[in-house]
Amino acid sequence: MMGVLNPHLRDVSDFKHKLWDHLHIISDFKIDVDSPYPVPARDAIHKKPELLDYPQHAIRYKHYGHTIERMIEKALAMPAPENRERMAMSIANFMKMAYMTWNKDTVQDEHIIQNLTELSNGQLALPADTVLTKLDFKTPPPGNRTKSGTTASSNNNQKNNNQKSGGKKNMVKKKNGPKKVSYRR
Predict the structure, then answer these.
(1) Which of 22, 52, 97, 110 has CB 3.0 to 4.6 Å from 135, enough for a Cys bridge?
(2) Does the residue 181 lie in any domain?
(3) 163 C-beta neighbours (distance < 10 Å), count
(4) pLDDT higher at 151 or 61
(5) What percent of the chain has pLDDT over 90?
(6) Strand 170-173 to strand 181-184: parallel, antiparallel, or no bridges (unpaired)?
(7) 182 falls within a domain
(8) How far is the CA of 98 from the CAs of 25, 86, 132, 165, in angstroms?
(9) Are 74 and 87 in contact (CB under 8 A)?
(10) How many CB atoms lie within 10 A of CB 23?
(11) Same structural domain, 27 and 78
(12) pTM exceeds cut of 0.70
């Protein structure tokens, strides 16, 4: 009966074994039947998952995150000074983007450069007159997202039709039968 009610389970490799296990679970292991498979252990069915260890990092600036600290470590490990300077510039730009994401306020480039110097213990220092790139990462609001199935040409057709009619809808009265009004685009 259970196999008839759940035909999608027939694709599972151990279909009959699973049905017998479900029968025992449904009966709360009180059913007395001769099963071709061993009765599953109650502990194995209701086993609690192991707890996950959460990372315990002491992050100085939460709005930059642990990733910035790891990026700074990688930059400091670079042997070539010109690569280290380019990496410091990239890190500073990323720090500015992260700051803007979490704080929504404008930030002076000198503040980001000072934080980079502090996080690297003075080993990564950019000149004070460095201009950082303004990175805007904004997701469109839910109502303004475009659907993948629509095309821009259909929207253009509607715009063209509206422009031809002056933006007004044409009303056409039918002469036969009761008076009906239809709108033409």
Answers:
(1) 97
(2) no
(3) 9
(4) 61
(5) 14
(6) antiparallel
(7) no
(8) 50, 18, 13, 49
(9) yes
(10) 15
(11) no
(12) no
